[in-house]
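haha ok so turns out i had the wrong file open the whole time. this is the CORRECT one, sorry everyone. sequence first:
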Amino acid sequence: MTENGRAFVIARLSDCPDLAALRRVWESLSAEYQRDGVVRAAKDALKTGMEGA
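then structure:
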């Protein structure tokens, strides 16, 4: 995993318009990125924001 890879993954997650899209992108990521604390925190923050909207 690289910093550029992490930034790319977070950008992909951030571009998701809704929870279904967020789930699809999350499920397409490698386990390495899914286990990364920074990536997981970004996904969780996005999910919380979408659930509250």
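The mean pLDDT is 96.
again sry for the mixup
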